[in-house]
């Protein structure tokens, strides 16, 4: 967990630098590569690396990273949705009364 936050902190420092020199750009790429190596299952790290490659014009490197991020996000979404069974109900459904209404009707 500490490595993950450290990689994000280093990325923030690299991005927050007021003057982006060639050296700062190299540091940013190294930080992103380290973040992917430290957290290979994290879609955001692949996405950020893909965006960096895209911004550098390295489209052949950007596309695989962006595809990995997209696949990871879609599999996470399917996994979250698969934990809901068809018979499951919302917790508020118990609050719905099935008995006769106590509100009088005017005719």
Question: What does this molecule look like?
Answer:
The protein is mainly α. The chain has a single domain, classed as Tetratricopeptide repeat domain (Serine Threonine Protein Phosphatase 5, Tetratricopeptide repeat, Alpha Horseshoe), CATH 1.25.40. 64% of the residues lie in helices and 0% in strands. The protein contains four helices and no strands. Helix 1 runs antiparallel to helix 2 and helix 3 packs antiparallel against helix 4. It is globular. The termini are far apart. The mean pLDDT is 75.
Number of helices: 4
Percent helix among the residues? 55-70%
Quick one: how many beta strands? 0
Any guess at the CATH architecture?
Answer: Alpha Horseshoe
Q: Describe the main β-sheet briefly.
A: none
CATH topology: Serine Threonine Protein Phosphatase 5, Tetratricopeptide repeat
Q: What does the average pLDDT come to? A: 75
Top-tier CATH class: Mainly Alpha
The radius of gyration is: 24 Å
CA-CA gap between termini: 66 Å
Going by helix content, strand content and strand pairing, the class is: mainly alpha
Poorly predicted tracts of residues: none
At the fourth level of CATH, the homologous superfamily is Tetratricopeptide repeat domain
Query: Which descriptor suits the 3D outline?
Result: globular
Order of helices and strands: HHHH
Q: Total domains, how many?
A: 1
Strand residue content: under 5%
């Amino acid at each position: 967990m500490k490595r993950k936050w450290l990689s994000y902190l280093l990325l923030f420092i690299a991005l927050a630098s007021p003057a982006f020199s060639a050296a700062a750009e190299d540091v940013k790429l190294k930080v992103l590569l380290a973040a992917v190596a430290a957290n290979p299952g994290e879609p955001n790290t692949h996405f950020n690396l893909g965006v960096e490659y895209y911004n550098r014009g390295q489209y052949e490197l950007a596309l695989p990273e962006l595809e990995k991020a997209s696949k990871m996000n879609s599999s996470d979404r399917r996994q979250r949705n698969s934990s809901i069974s068809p018979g499951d109900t919302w917790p508020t459904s118990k609050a719905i009364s099935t008995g006769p209404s106590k509100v009088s009707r005017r005719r």
